[in-house]
Amino acid sequence: QKEVEQDPGPLSVPEGAIVSLNCTYSNSAFQYFMWYRQYSRKGPELLMYTYSSGNKEDGRFTAQVDKSSKYISLFIRDSQPSDSATYLCALRDGGSQGNLIFGKGTKLSVKP
Amino acid sequence: DTEVTQTPKHLVMGMTNKKSLKCEQHMGHRAMYWYKQKAKKPPELMFVYSYEKLSINESVPSRFSPECPNSSLLNLHLHALQPEDSALYLCASSPGLAAAYEQYFGPGTRLTVT
Question: A102, B42: Cβ pair inside 8 Å?
Answer without folding.
Answer: yes
